[in-house]
Specification:
α2 packs parallel to α4 and α3 runs antiparallel to α4. 12% of the residues lie in helices and 37% in strands. β19 and β20 form a beta hairpin. The chain is globular and about 65 Å long. It contains four helices and 29 strands. The two termini are 31 Å apart. By secondary structure, the protein is mainly beta. The strands form seven sheets. Strands 5, 13, 14, 18, 19, 20, 21, 24, 25, 26 and 27 form an eleven-stranded mixed beta sheet that branches. It has a five-stranded antiparallel beta sheet with strand order 4-7-2-12-15, with no helix packed on it. It folds into three domains: 201 residues, Jelly Rolls (Sandwich), CATH 2.60.120; 108 residues, Galactose-binding domain-like (Jelly Rolls); 116 residues, no CATH class.
Length: 450
């Protein structure tokens, strides 16, 4: 029973914290405890202080709502066919205990609330918002519900800024102590504000999630004006993990780039230049702790650090798609080409879409998707990814003309959508991906919308 009680924090808070306490006399009487949850744009959640899911950047991106009111660099004349949001489900039964239990959630902007972007306009669908429903079922089938209602409390967090393209600013001094834990000090916490549910379909996410797939250990290659420069030795989509060693109030900055300039400093041009630096800032609270961005990834090989920190590793993050092929021959160039393709394709899977690049635009261009689909289906287990993206393409069609735009989900993009549905754009993706899926042997459910 989805009552869809959506809540938010303050109007000026980009990354609010929420906690919902509930008390259980004993847990043995319950046979299941199923949490259904959606946080827009992204969310992280904890139960009794523990993060129980290794999924990142939840939920997968979709056509959230009407784009007619968004700031675009060209006219958008037509509504999309379907708006859709995904919720995720988790089994909480092993983590519940007698007494007070706390479900805690941190929200981020994701694609839902992007206020800064150097190209293709701003797409803001509303403030970050949260819905959840925890269903407790006993042996007799009787059910109790814990919901995202006004018993849920909220508080501003230390994440002051979070942007997919520009990175994050996090002030560790402003994080409420033990906010995810039972028995926390609730001074300053307020009841969450009810908001209208998004005018969208709310469906369970069944496609593969984004995860930390690999860890790399960068090498220090130089220093310039107090900034240490590191090399991951391959281009990745992901994040840098640091140990914070600063005193209270000291700052740490991390900047990312794909290339080096002639003088050995970072060259930011490929990701947008100085107008769109991929950088993260941390303000220390005096405690040693591990830090990394929470709601974004960066595209980079090189990075620089400034401030009191130690680099622990770099984490590669992308949609969890298995490599189902292998290649080896006597020519090292061909072997490198295969490995480089695999890394490149995987680095461009986020939110279960195939993107054009993991830094500058990050969009599901339907033209680029046509070019890469055949090779991807041959070498990777992409069935569920393309099933999800195919649904995104159908959702993004114009409600009146059926025109397929040049990105799906439709979030702008270079090239424009054509003139009142008459431009060819990249609409051939509709038939082409379907044909490739057929040839690749994907099951009939993939083709149900043919």
């Amino acid at each position: 029973m989805k009552k869809e009680h959506w809540i938010c924090g303050g109007a000026s808070c980009e990354a609010p914290l929420f906690r919902r306490s509930f008390w259980l006399d004993r847990t043995e009487r319950f046979q299941s405890a199923r949490l259904e949850i959606c946080g827009l744009g992204y969310f992280l959640f904890y139960i009794n202080g523990k993060r129980i899911s290794d999924q990142e950047l939840m939920p997968a991106m979709t056509d959230y709502a009407s784009v007619l009111g968004c700031e675009t660099t060209y006219p958008v004349w037509e509504e999309r066919s379907v708006h859709r949001c995904r919720y995720l489900s988790f089994d909480l039964l092993p983590y519940l205990k007698a007494g007070e239990n706390v479900l805690a959630v941190r929200l981020g902007n994701g694609w839902y609330h992007q206020t800064e972007r150097i190209a293709e306009g701003k797409f803001v669908f509303g403030l970050p918002k949260l819905w959840f429903e925890l269903t407790l079922t006993d042996a007799d089938g009787r059910q109790e519900w814990i919901e995202s209602d006004r018993q849920t409390l909220w508080h501003p967090g230390g994440l002051l800024k979070n942007n997919l393209f520009l990175g994050e600013v996090r002030d560790l001094r402003k994080e409420p102590e033990g906010w995810q834990d039972p028995g926390a000090d609730l001074s300053g916490w307020k009841p969450a504000q009810p908001v209208h549910a998004p005018e969208t379909l709310l469906e369970e996410q069944t496609c593969p999630p984004d995860r930390v797939i690999r860890k790399l250990y960068p090498i220090l290659i130089g220093e310039h004006d107090g900034r240490k420069i590191y090399d991951c030795r391959e281009n990745i989509a992901g994040r840098v993990v640091l140990s914070c060693l600063g005193k209270k109030g000291e700052c740490i900055t991390v900047r990312h780039a794909e290339e080096l300039a002639a003088d050995g400093t970072l060259d930011f041009e490929s990701a947008g230049g100085s107008d769109q630096l991929q950088q993260d800032h941390y303000i220390c609270d005096g405690r040693i702790q591990t830090l990394h961005p929470l709601f974004c990834w960066h595209g980079f090989r090189y990075f620089e650090t400034e401030g009191p920190c130690e680099v622990l590793c770099a984490e590669v993050i992308h949609t969890d798609v298995a490599v189902t092929s292998s290649f080896s021959c006597s020519d090292p160039v061909l072997n490198w080409l295969y490995e480089a393709y695999i890394r490149t394709q995987l680095d461009n899977y986020h939110g279960c879409i195939p993107s054009d690049c993991p830094h500058r635009e990050r969009l599901g261009y339907t033209g680029d998707g046509q070019l890469t689909a055949e090779t991807a289906m041959l070498l990777l287990d992409t069935k569920e990814l393309y099933r999800k993206w195919y649904q995104d393409i159908l959702d993004s069609q114009g409600a009146e003309t059926g025109h397929i735009p040049h990105t799906a989900p439709f979030l702008g993009g270079g090239g424009g959508p054509g003139i009142r549905g008459k431009g060819a754009a990249a609409g051939g993706i509709y038939q082409y991906v379907l044909l490739l899926a057929w040839i690749a042997g994907n099951d009939a459910n993939f083709r149900k919308n043919e």
